[in-house]
């Protein structure tokens, strides 16, 4: 996923657990990029992506989450897959994510559109991509 300088979020690739936010289409890989829909009243300032879920933070400090939610880990009162971005109730004034650790995953990505950067972590190797 990527966040453009004008606040649009685009995704591509596999959507097995709803991590792309495009609904129940399980595989967008062969269809190219698509725009993730948010209500226009919300200005997206940053995004954070991991293997099976994604998050977006608005300029007002609200957080949207979507994707795999087996253990209620997306902040919603449900363990169902969240197929499209859903606002987390009662979570406000969030400005960013300082640290992201997952002990049980070998590969994950953390994206931030603030400076046009994407960080990919594989094992103990961290690569920073900048446009």
Helix segment count? 0
Terminal CA distance reads 14 Å
Q: Quaternary arrangement of the chains shown? A: single chain
Unreliable stretches: 99-131
The gyration radius over C-alpha positions equals 14 Å
Strand order of the largest sheet: 4-5-6-7
Return the structural class.
mainly beta
Integer tally of domains: 1
Q: What best-fitting shape do the alpha-carbon axes yield?
A: globular
Sheet having the most strands: 4 strands, antiparallel
Overall residue-averaged pLDDT value:
75
User: Helical amount among residues, as a percent range?
Assistant: under 10%
Tell me the β content. Answer: 35-45%
Order of helices and strands: EEEEEEEEEE
Number of strands: 10
Write the layout of secondary structure elements.
Elements: E1 2-3, E2 9-11, E3 34-36, E4 44-49, E5 53-58, E6 63-67, E7 82-87, E8 107-112, E9 117-122, E10 125-130
Antiparallel strand pairs: 1-2, 2-3, 4-5, 5-6, 6-7, 8-9, 9-10
Structure, explained:
- This protein is mainly β.
- It has one domain (2-99).
- Helices cover 0% and strands 37% of the residues.
- The strands form three sheets. The chain has a four-stranded antiparallel beta sheet, with no helix packed on it.
- Strand 5 and strand 6 (63-67) form a beta hairpin.
- The two termini are 14 Å apart.
- Mean pLDDT is 75; it is low at 99-131.
- RCC repeats lie at residues 7-60.
- Keywords: Repeat.
